[in-house]
Design goal:
Elements (H helix, E strand, L loop, with lengths): L1 H29 L5 H35 L7 H29 L5 H31 L2
Length: 144
């Protein structure tokens, strides 16, 4: 049973790592190209679609991360699972305290200061998901 949790966890984390790199490297840097009402319309569609995509993945990652930390797969390093869970909590905190407020400000129209803040603070989540993926690769290699 715990092996299935691990597979679901791997799926959610690797999917989110790919998504966050796409957002950080392509989506956010291009965001400034749309202005005025076109930006507001684009941003509303972007946040709605992104929420439908990443919301379930983030919840799955959190739920399976908690479950694996409390009911680890035999032979896997428990400390590594707990470090991974702390990174999930960091991601959720950065999302709630940094990313979402920026998006709330941007929904009223493009603002270069808020946009730069969004791009800069999103590196926290990008780094955390990248570290999580590397941790999970390590865990997979240590699995019996």
């Amino acid at each position: 049973m715990n092996q299935y949790l691990l597979l679901l966890h791997l799926f959610a984390t690797f999917a989110m790592t790919g998504i966050i790199w796409f957002v950080q490297a392509i989506e956010y840097p291009l965001m400034h190209r749309s202005q005025g009402e076109a930006f507001r319309s684009y941003h509303a569609a972007y946040t709605k679609r992104m929420g439908f995509l990443v919301g379930p993945l983030m919840l799955l990652e959190l739920a399976t991360g908690v479950a694996l930390s409390l009911l680890p797969v035999p032979g896997l390093p428990v400390l590594t699972l707990w470090i991974g869970l702390m990174l999930i909590l960091l991601i959720w905190a950065a999302t709630a305290l940094l990313s979402i407020p920026c998006h709330h400000r941007l929904r009223h129209g493009y603002d270069s200061v808020t946009h730069r803040q969004l791009v800069a603070t999103n590196w926290i989540r990008t780094a955390a998901w990248t570290l999580r993926s590397l941790l999970l690769i390590t865990i997979i290699n240590l699995a019996p």
